[in-house]
Design goal:
Number of strands: 4
Strand content: 25-35%
Oligomer: single chain
Radius of gyration: 14 Å
Number of helices: 3
Structural class: alpha+beta
Strand order of the largest sheet: 2-3-1-4
Helix content: 25-40%
Largest sheet: 4 strands, antiparallel
Low-confidence stretches: none
Mean pLDDT: 97
Order of helices and strands: EHEEHHE
Shape: globular
Length: about 100
Amino acid sequence: MKKTLLAEFTAREGAQHEVARLIGDYALTVREEEGNIAFDVYTKAAHPRSFWIFEVYRDEDAFQAHVKAPYGGPFNAALAPLIEEDASVLTFLTPLPAHP
């Protein structure tokens, strides 16, 4: 079963462009992971310092490989002082079953 989640965080005042650069570079790397299906980065139209990342992985194993990737730690360490939250807020999503 696919692993789907939404990661959210808010850039600190004045850090929006640096956060956008960091997440943009990170997205290019994550999209190359064998088990990654989607890693789409958005900002809220009404609040451009709020970032939403929609992530889809092939399955739990692919998600765990993503979590354990060696570049994740340095990315999170660089991001942490630039955002208002302590870390990204993760919301795991479950698809509704298809109706005939």
